[in-house]
Amino acid sequence: MLRPDDTSCTAPGVTFVPPVVLGPAVELAPGVRLGPYAVLGPGCRLAAGAVVRDSILWERVQVGEGAQVQGCVLATGVHVPAASTLVQEVRSG
To answer: CB neighbours of 85 closer than 8 A, spacing ≥ 6?
Structure first.
């Protein structure tokens, strides 16, 4: 299930592997890959080449360029630095 609302911004070249759920005002840069099982809360921003799968991102999470997030729960306001990898982590802002 993909649920981008009309306030989400998706760049060309974004790949979705269902199920994927997007909240309002999500920004996805070119080359982002989402899913399977990706949930992005309101205001999340993913930079170019970021990958999120099997994860829940709460409000306003930022994922840097080329970063990979797998099996994680990231709380409101968490920032994942560029080129980093998070696997099976829970982080709070």
So the answer is: 67, 68, 70
Q: Which phi-psi region, left, alpha or beta, contains residue 60 (left: φ > 0; alpha: ψ -120 to 50)?
A: left
Q: What is the pLDDT of residues 33-68, one digit of tens each?
A: 999 999 999 999 999 999 999 999 999 999 999 999
| Domain positions in the chain | 9-78
Burial of 12 (0-12, 13-18, 19+ CB in 10 A): exposed
Q: Say how far apart CA 83 and CA 19 lie, in whole Å.
A: 25
Ramachandran region of residue 27, left (φ > 0), alpha (ψ -120 to 50) or beta?
Answer: beta
Residue 13 tokens, joined: 């070249």
Nearest alpha-carbon partner for 30 in 46, 6, 7: 46
Per the listing, tokens 């099996």 go with 71
